[in-house]
Amino acid sequence: MFQTFWRFRGAIAPHVWALAGGALLVVFVAAVEVALPWPMKVIVDDVLQPTGSSQLHETPAFLGLAGLSQLQLLLLAASALLAMTVLNAGADYLGTRLLNGVGERAMATIRAEVFTHLQRLSLAFHDKQRLGDLVTRTTTDVDYVRALMVSILSVLLPNVFILGFVITICVLIDPTFALIGLAVSPLLFVTVLFYRRRIKVASKEARSRDSDIAAAMSETFSSVRVMQTYTSEAHHEEDFRTRNDGRRDAGLKVIRLQSMFSPLVDIIATLGTVLVLWIGAQRVLDGTLTLGLLLVFLAYLKALYSPMKSLAKLTTVISRGQASAERIQEILDTAPAISDLPGARPAPRLAGAVELRSVSFGYHGDRHVLHGIDLTVEPGRVVAITGPTGAGKSSVVSLIPRLYDAAEGEVLLDGIDVRDLQVATVRRQISIVLQESILFRGTIYDNIAYGSEGVSREQVLAAAEAAHVDEFVRNLPLGYDTPVAERGVTLSGGQRQRIAIARALVRDTPIVILDEPTSGLDAISEQYVMRGLERLMAGRTVIVIAHRLSTLKRADRIYVLDKGRIVESGRHSELAAAGGLYSRLDSLQHAKDTPALTLVPAESGSLKTETSA
Ligand SMILES: Nc1ncnc2c1ncn2[C@@H]1O[C@H](COP(=O)(O)OP(=O)(O)OP(=O)(O)O)[C@@H](O)[C@H]1O
């Protein structure tokens, strides 16, 4: 339990004074609560029943108030009660505020830490993660840890003090009687221990089911377009129902355990109370105990058991919080698979030579998807990679910006092994345009400037013009300040690609990777995008994954990939004549493209038609 504090000590440390202040205040509240039954005792024993054994009526004498009249005592006791209650309320308010404030602040720090760490973790980690699970860990789990910390300080700590104070006072007043009151404590303790463990296991299960639901939500609603088009709502509903039922059952198990726990504690506590009442009443009758002291004892018994009951309730909060803390820690403990190696140096401004030497690579251990890849691109040249689906084209290009590390062989940039260079300085010199470009929430302008720090507005606008973004932005009422919805769904595929090209142009990197950036576009959009790409490719090293003839013909060299191996390489004309895999793919492409009419947008904005080469 306390290791949770230790675990997140970095986030708590800046608030240690507020934490200490809050803790002191709640302990003060506990002390006042222990003193609260005493004015009542004075009223019962010394105001209402002032006669009897002087030994038993010693409180006013002990407090130096022996000479006061009954009325004066009543007034004093009542005022003390009121004052203590008001003081308690004030300290309670301040303490709760301080502790909860620390909780919120520390959790904001932890959330930020988790987010930053997640961003640093490599693709190999994210490939295996479900987005919903990561969201849950950053939100709900962090909140459960907050509840745990705050509860430990504002419930557990004062209750432990109350227990300590009460037991001490009871023993001081009447050790035998105190022992009777405490007789049931071991039973209570064992019950708490037993249930705590079981509730912790059940809570962890419920938490992982929560993640399941979050994952189902994110998977379903990130592909809502496909889901609705394929009318597969029923399938998603069924899947969700299964996960939801799992969560419900796990939650019900926690509730069952919890609800068994509380009444059990109640029964054991009542057993103790009955015992004290039975013996206490007899002692009051035979005059060895005052009624006021019996009332104090009973109040203390309540004060003794109610912390135990609170601890019972706290069990869930603590177990849940511990499970959540472990889930957060799992993320923070994951070391990024891709990071700067010791001695890595900043990459110099690259000329753009790219070489893969005998590279093998796999996503899962020894199951390689690339085998002995040799590939060379000279600075400023265009190299195309083609091949059937699943051949490993995307895998090859993902090794260049070191999104993954090769298992064997080397990836060299300007002759330097990428692993000897600082990752960030390499990635800053590579731009990627994917099949489907991702836009982020923000304006079109923000999306173009994304990833280029300190870039001027002129540069952004010039890139936008070169990438033919300007053509459609001009017609938008808010122009470049038009907000783009998350994932960019308010724009067409071609428009998104043009923004992505502008983004790459602003970055002005020596190396550009294009992963089929025109696939899935209609002919008109493709022409616009191609024009932007021409601007982007000029003077840079370009590695393009392509199937289209137009792109392949333009390449200085084509590598044909099949089942993770390079099976052919050369220029289009050589490969087309060689009678290998490329020529088969080429004839398929011809069959698809002929007769080919390509629409080319005229500068005026009207369309003209021209026959494809
Ligand atoms: N993130 C991943 N985790 C595990 N395996 C992967 C991952 N990405 C790709 N693979 C596997 O690696 C192999 C090569 O995939 P890759 O995406 O590189 O092929 P590709 O030629 O680009 O295919 P496509 O043309 O369909 O995009 C495939 O067998 C694929 O299943």
Automatic annotation (TrEMBL):
Cross-referenced InterPro entries: AAA+_ATPase, ABC1_TM_dom, ABC1_TM_sf, ABC_transporter-like_ATP-bd, ABC_transporter-like_CS, P-loop_NTPase, Type_1_exporter
TM regions (residue ranges): 12-32, 61-87, 147-169, 175-195, 261-281, 287-305
Membrane topology: Multi-pass membrane protein
Keywords: ATP-binding, Cell inner membrane, Cell membrane, Membrane, Nucleotide-binding, Transmembrane, Transmembrane helix, Transport
Record-annotated ABC transmembrane type-1 domain positions: 20-320
Protein name per Swiss-Prot or TrEMBL: Putative ABC transporter permease/ATP-binding protein
Protein's cellular compartments: Cell inner membrane
Main location: membrane
Similarity comment: family membership: Belongs to the ABC transporter superfamily. Siderophore-Fe(3+) uptake transporter (SIUT) (TC 3.A.1.21) family.
Domain of life of the native organism: Bacteria
A GO CC annotation given for this chain: plasma membrane
Residues in ABC transporter domain copies: 354-588
MF-aspect GO terms: ABC-type oligopeptide transporter activity; ATP binding; ATP hydrolysis activity
Taxonomic classification: Bacteria, Bacillati, Actinomycetota, Actinomycetes, Micrococcales
